[in-house]
């Protein structure tokens, strides 16, 4: 599934599925089963090429509650698709038109980790030979919240419908290997990762609210990033940092200043506060001063 469905075809299929779902209550009972089967087939097909569709389809495997969509999730999915393109398609085409560095700054409760976990699964579906390094605030946290959940999704029947050619050969809570030689490894910030390599590195809230006020902890994590994680990138590899910002001198503040001073490639930075400012409201097409995700977090909440 390294081929690409044309954007016009993706848009057309999404419209078809949305129309069918809306019309479903009015469909004659004798046609409902056939319609549901058709929706399933087209959704599975679309999920191979559209990450947001994959995320919605696979959510029941990883979420305790029903999936509630939000505008920021569409944007998040689009940006992560760009990371995939940069890491694999961009390299094949010898082009740098895709951003290789992405930072998403989001509030708590914005479905950051779930989205990133499913992105890892989607990448391996399309590229079972991929290598990904995934970092959390601690190794135990990463294993419980990233590695074990990604493994369960990739070994599920629903995942096999979308990506039947991607199979897990060996797995632990911190390590997954596919039958095509792909490798996934998750760990805590500051951990030694000698011998590991990645087409994509992902940092998910590596400085938590518990240690954000500690200058010692912030410094240790920030000074580990370049000689530790970044040095593990394969040629043309991509970096993803997603976090809630609890301090100006967190990993985001540190690495943006460092890269700016060194004049290395720019980051694609998306800032979405809990209550939208003018820029984020315009970006999401939602009211300024209102909630970033009103479907789940109304203003009062």
Sheet having the most strands: 8 strands, mixed
Shape: globular
Question: How far from one another are the termini?
Answer: 41 Å
Helix content: 40-55%
- Report the structural category: alpha/beta
**How many strand elements?**
8
Q: What is the spatial order of strands in the main beta sheet?
A: 3-4-5-2-6-7-1-8
Rounded Rg: 20 Å
Tell me the series of helices and strands, N- to C-terminal.
Answer: HHHHEHEHHEEEEHEHEH
Strand content: 15-25%
Number of helices in the DSSP assignment: 10
Unreliable parts: none
Mean of residue pLDDT values: 92
Describe the 3D structure.
The chain is an alpha/beta fold and 301 residues long. The chain has ten helices and eight strands. The protein has helices spanning 7-23, 29-47, 51-58, 71-93, 112-126, 139-154, 157-162, 215-229, 251-262, 278-284, and strands at residues 101-105, 131-136, 168-171, 175-178, 183-188, 198-204, 233-243, 268-271. An eight-stranded mixed beta sheet has the order 3-4-5-2-6-7-1-8. A hairpin with a 4-residue loop joins strand 4 and strand 5. The longest helix has 23 residues, at 71-93. The radius of gyration is 20 Å and the shape is globular. The mean pLDDT is 92.
Summarize the structure.
With 301 residues, the protein is an alpha/beta fold.
SSE order and pairing:
Blueprint: H1 7-23, H2 29-47, H3 51-58, H4 71-93, E1 101-105, H5 112-126, E2 131-136, H6 139-154, H7 157-162, E3 168-171, E4 175-178, E5 183-188, E6 198-204, H8 215-229, E7 233-243, H9 251-262, E8 268-271, H10 278-284
Parallel strand pairs: 1-7, 1-8, 2-5, 2-6, 6-7
Antiparallel strand pairs: 3-4, 4-5
């Amino acid at each position: 599934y390294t081929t690409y469905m044309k954007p016009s075809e993706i848009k057309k299929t999404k419209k078809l599925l949305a129309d069918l779902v809306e019309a479903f209550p009015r469909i004659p009972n004798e046609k409902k089963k056939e319609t549901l089967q058709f929706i399933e087939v087209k959704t599975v097909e679309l999920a191979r090429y559209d990450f947001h569709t994959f995320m919605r389809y696979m959510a029941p495997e990883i979420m305790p509650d029903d999936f509630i969509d939000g505008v920021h999730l569409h944007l998040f999915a689009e940006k992560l698709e760009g990371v995939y393109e940069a890491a694999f398609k961009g390299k094949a085409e010898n082009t740098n038109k895709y951003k290789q560095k992405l930072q998403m700054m989001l509030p708590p409760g914005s479905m950051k980790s779930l989205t990133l976990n499913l992105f890892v699964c989607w990448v391996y579906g399309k590229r079972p030979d991929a290598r990904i390094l995934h970092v959390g605030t601690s190794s135990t946290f990463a294993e419980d919240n990233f590695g074990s959940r990604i493994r369960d999704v990739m070994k599920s029947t629903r995942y096999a419908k979308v990506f039947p050619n991607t199979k897990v050969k060996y797995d632990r809570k911190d390590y997954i290997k596919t039958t095509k030689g792909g490798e996934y490894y998750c760990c805590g910030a500051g951990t030694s990762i000698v011998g590991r390599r990645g087409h994509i590195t992902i940092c998910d809230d590596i400085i938590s609210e518990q240690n954000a006020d500690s200058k010692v902890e912030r410094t240790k994590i920030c000074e580990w990033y370049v000689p530790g994680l970044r040095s593990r990138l394969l040629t043309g590899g991509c970096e993803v940092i997603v976090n809630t910002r609890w301090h100006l001198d967190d990993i985001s503040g540190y690495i943006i200043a460092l890269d700016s001073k060194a004049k290395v490639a720019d980051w694609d930075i998306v800032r979405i506060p809990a209550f939208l400012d003018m820029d984020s409201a315009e970006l999401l097409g939602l009211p300024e001063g209102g909630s970033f995700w009103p479907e789940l977090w109304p203003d009062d909440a």
